[in-house]
């Protein structure tokens, strides 16, 4: 049985990733920081559709429980893959952001994924093949004004994955980043309708991405036959900001 842990499984893109991977035969750990009810409900729905697979909601708060990372990882059943779909941002000028907010964005988006990767590596490389996929952003390639810290963390994931992939390539563990452009998710609810329409008009494909546009590429990178693709950042942007 192939099993993946999806961090941030209750987010807009995270939910789409879980649905796509479940349909592809994966058993899932559905991680959430706080939304236990949402993770449990999603697991129950998937279990009804795919009764031969396992779907286990699991709660872990990256900030308040950070000192327990090792214990958390050691409690897991063997996994073939890890997908880091969590991410937060704060839309404002840097000078108006509190140091605590800056540190929180860096911790959730970059530091904790790297630390979890270190802890998961011994588990992953025991498998016949294993995969790591981070959810990056088009802003990791071209930084966004008013999201400078967020942009830095997503750029950091790309450079980290590029370097780390070279360290573990001989173990059949691949490490890649899927970097979406503008996606129709609750994370973009902070922007007014007019702003989102303006963004949409700038996208050559003529629309915002849907969650399934992103989850498809995660599925491809987790496939057993994707073993020669590692250290890459794949931009899924509809041609926007390239």
TrEMBL record:
<dbReference type="InterPro" id="IPR050259">
    <property type="entry name" value="SDR"/>
</dbReference>
<dbReference type="InterPro" id="IPR020904">
    <property type="entry name" value="Sc_DH/Rdtase_CS"/>
</dbReference>
<keyword id="KW-0560">Oxidoreductase</keyword>
<dbReference type="GO" id="GO:0004316">
    <property type="term" value="F:3-oxoacyl-[acyl-carrier-protein] reductase (NADPH) activity"/>
</dbReference>
<dbReference type="Pfam" id="PF00106">
    <property type="entry name" value="adh_short"/>
</dbReference>
<comment type="similarity">
    <text>Belongs to the short-chain dehydrogenases/reductases (SDR) family.</text>
</comment>
<protein>
    <submittedName>
        <fullName>Oxidoreductase, short chain dehydrogenase/reductase family protein</fullName>
        <ecNumber>1.1.1.100</ecNumber>
    </submittedName>
</protein>
<dbReference type="GO" id="GO:0032787">
    <property type="term" value="P:monocarboxylic acid metabolic process"/>
</dbReference>
<dbReference type="InterPro" id="IPR002347">
    <property type="entry name" value="SDR_fam"/>
</dbReference>
<dbReference type="InterPro" id="IPR036291">
    <property type="entry name" value="NAD(P)-bd_dom_sf"/>
</dbReference>
């Amino acid at each position: 049985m192939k099993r993946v842990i999806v961090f941030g499984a209750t987010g807009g893109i995270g939910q789409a990733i879980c649905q796509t991977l479940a349909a592809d035969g994966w058993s899932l750990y559905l991680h959430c920081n706080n939304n236990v009810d949402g993770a449990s409900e999603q697991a129950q729905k998937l279990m009804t559709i795919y009764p031969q697979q396992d779907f286990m909601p699991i709660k872990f708060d990256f900030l308040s429980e950070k000192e327990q990372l090792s214990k958390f990882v050691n409690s897991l059943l063997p996994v073939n893959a890890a997908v880091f779909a969590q991410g937060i941002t704060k839309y404002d000028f840097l000078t108006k952001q509190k140091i605590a907010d800056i540190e929180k964005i860096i911790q959730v988006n970059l530091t904790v994924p790297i630390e979890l990767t270190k802890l998961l590596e011994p588990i992953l490389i025991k498998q016949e093949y294993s995969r790591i996929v981070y959810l990056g952003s088009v802003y990791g390639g071209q930084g966004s004004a008013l999201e400078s810290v967020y942009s830095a963390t997503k750029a950091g994931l790309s450079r980290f994955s590029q370097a780390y992939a070279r360290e573990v390539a001989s173990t059949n563990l691949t490490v890649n980043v899927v970097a979406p452009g503008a996606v129709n998710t609750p994370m973009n609810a902070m922007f007014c309708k007019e702003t989102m329409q303006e963004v949409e008009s700038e996208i050559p494909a003529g629309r915002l991405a849907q969650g399934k546009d992103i989850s498809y590429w995660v599925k491809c990178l987790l496939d057993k036959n994707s073993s020669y693709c590692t250290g890459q950042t794949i931009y899924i942007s509809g041609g926007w900001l390239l």
